Amino acid sequence: MTSARGHGVGGCGTDRGRRRRRLVPLAAVALLAVAGAACGRANAEGRSHLTVEVTIHHSTFAPPAFTFDKGTTVTFVIRNTDPIEHEFIVGDQAVQYYIEHTEHPTHDGSVPGQISVPPGATRETTYTFTDVTQRPSDMGFACHLPGHFKYGMHGPITVTA
To answer: What is the value of pTM for the model shown?
Structure first.
């Protein structure tokens, strides 16, 4: 079989061979991007908006921690693979304490960084990180349904200058 140019399929001089050579570096960049996201480190690199995927599985968050640059707006896409409802609440110590210690309704996404995620569902919430953190406990994310926080459904968010 030959290509439209009359070259053999898959040879170095063919269009297909040139496309492969171009795709290999692109695949490597994509793989590095996925590996970086898995570590929970995100950097706006001149951009002001990132999208980060979070998975809830067996009442744990993956990734378990995040680092963002100050001023970055992040859209968290949270996928709940559990058969029970969870929350994803982003906020400082005061927000986390308040939600953990008060009765509160489900979070419909109207408050930035606060969303309820039904079983098997995917939901989004967006939050802008405006303050640099000094300690790991300054900013975090958590699920505050009864017993979930104590079970360990929380993690730190570091915000750098």
So the answer is: 0.72
